[in-house]
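Hi, here's the filled form for the chain we discussed.

Project: internal
Contact: R.S.
Residues: 266
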Amino acid sequence: MVLYTKKKPTIAVYKFSSCDGCQLSILNMEDELLDLVEVVEIAHFLEASREVLPGPYTIGLIEGSVTTEEEIQRIKAIRRNVDVLVALGTCATAGGVQSLRNFGDLEHLTNAVYAHPEFIESLPTSTRIADHVKVDYELWGCPVSRAEVVEVLTAVLQNRRPNLPQYSLCLECKRQGNPCVVVAYGMPCLGPITRSGCGALCPSNGRGCYGCFGPLPMAEVDAIVPVLKAHQRYPGEAVRLLRTISGNAPAFVDAAELIISQEETP
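And the returned structure, exactly as it came back:
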């Protein structure tokens, strides 16, 4: 990796299929942004400015999943135009909420939702950025953690490896003194197998974790299956929980399919 010293490094922010929440998280960085623009040039960020400076760019931040043929071609062109590519948020790292289509039938869904489904041009699946091009860093979250965005940008500019949390959400709950929602309230929670980063937002408000920050690497996902099944409050709750925000992440896909197979076995 090259250490950029001769001129200001450039940053480009791109949107694919998404809700814009991760881009808004960047805009809400406020004080951090003021410091950032002292050392980098924000060259392409249509959420913030219509001005676009020509590439190539030092860092490309990608929000959103790939859901159309046009987006496949666009992400390949972007990859050729940036030195470092960062997948930003759960849509870009796992396909996002829109990947619910992956577990159903696209034609049925479009017919049910749109008055004129014949005008919809969409791929049958919603996929992560890394399924189509090389990604240098993945930042999970719905929305992404502002602190992690700053850390990755700083690390790239300093030519070092970013220091990102590598522990489960349960540790954040313990630090905040939260009671375990599984033990105290008997509700399913994905906290033990989910990456930290949100500050244990849902458990802090008496709800189980929805897995917004994706599966923790090397987590014993299979081990939580019997716990999720034992605390279901209605049939199918565990599978629906696993197939929500980060449902297309391979570890969550496997856990959901394991539950389905066990329920189908006589």
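Let me know if anything looks off before we file it.
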